[in-house]
Amino acid sequence: MLEMFSFDAAVPLHLFEYGLKRERTEQHWHSFFEIGYCLEGRGTFFIGEETVVVEPGTLMLFPPYEPHIAMAEAEGCRFAFVYFSESLFYPEDRYLLRPFARAAIWNEPEWRSHRPSASERPGPLLAAMLAEYESKPSAYGPLLRSSMLTLAVWLYRSEEARYGRREWRERSDALERLRPALEAVAERFREPFGLREAAEALSLSESRTRHLFVEGVGKRFKAYLTFVRVQEAKRLLATSDLSVTDVYLACGFQSAAPFYRSFRQLVGFNPQQYRERYMGEG
Asked: What's the pTM value of the predicted model, to 2 decimals?
């Protein structure tokens, strides 16, 4: 994992409320799944190259490795967030994670059109889960698993209705087929690693692997690998005293020029400026 985060020992799940800031920062990603639900206010999410306006009732799904960041359009934009690992679900139930194959957004009218029953509202369910998670009464873990299973079934049925079974399964299957390569990148990005190694992880040709990356994560392989390396560089610049040279070597870059070029393109600052800015905010 590139992020410094660990789940509660009792259940691989983390819930919290968060007020979005009005300043936009750099996109990030996680190695776990994420759900966001707008409680109040208005904000904007930047998901890769896409910009999405969110309002109360907006439900957002993020798969692992999906770059995103959010900002409030005014004070008082609050979200409920859920982070969870696929291990929260038993193996026979993990097909319910297919709605997370790509980032997905549901505004409240869309949700009501597919889930008209008043008993299938994400807001009350997430509020009850958050209260359970914060108080942690006895046997709270199984109850949270049950609630997440309920929400996952609602999402599965809604996504299936939204796209139609054939198109939806094609979209979701691409990321699932790509998962071994994504895991290989996460484990080996610090060393020389190319399309050939990714193809080997999938037991596919390089040509098919190249297409699968575009289908699964919306990026070419090289762009995705560079993004992962820059994310780690940001972490090291913010949390260590390593020199910039040591940072880019530790992240898998072989020389300074491609590192500086990629960092500037993705972050908007050079590495020294990013470190100074981060330290200044701290």
From this structure: 0.70
